[in-house]
Structures are given as structure tokens and as C-alpha cells.
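In response to the reviewer comment on reproducibility (Comment 2.3), we provide here a single inverse folding case reported in full, input and output, so that an independent group could reproduce the run without further information from us. The C-alpha cells appear first.
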């Protein structure tokens, strides 16, 4: 116990805390952040829903049915 305490005092270091959030980094730019783009200049949230790719592709698909009567 005493030895560990002495070593702790001798080898004491100031460790840098890792940054948890992206906005804590020095090179953070608000204009490039996707989440911050959801807010206007007054701080109001603007919901941007992703466009549904299936809606546009439905116009491009052509389905052709061939009906054959069953002969008994």
C-alpha cells in the first residue's frame, strides 16, 4: 500500500482527457456538421426527411402481365 502511494507521487503525470464529442475538437466547423444543418439562424429545428428512392424508381419500372387461360 505504501509502496504504491510512493510510486504514485514519483511517477505522477497529467494525463490528457480524451475528447468525447466532435464539437470539442479544435478543427470543428459548425457549417459542415450535418446535425447543425437542421437548425435555422434563430435556433429553430427544421426537419429534413430523406427522399424516398422507391418513389422515383416506381415510375421507371414497367410490369407486363401475360394471362393464359387454363384448359381442362
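Designed residues, in position order:
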Amino acid at each position: 500500500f505504501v509502496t504504491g502511494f510512493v510510486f504514485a507521487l514519483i511517477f505522477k503525470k497529467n494525463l490528457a482527457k480524451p475528447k468525447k464529442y466532435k464539437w470539442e475538437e479544435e478543427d470543428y466547423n459548425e457549417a459542415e456538421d450535418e446535425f447543425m444543418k437542421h437548425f435555422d439562424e434563430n435556433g429553430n429545428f427544421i426537419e429534413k426527411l430523406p427522399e424516398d428512392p422507391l418513389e422515383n424508381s416506381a415510375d421507371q419500372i414497367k410490369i407486363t402481365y401475360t394471362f393464359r387461360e387454363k384448359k381442362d
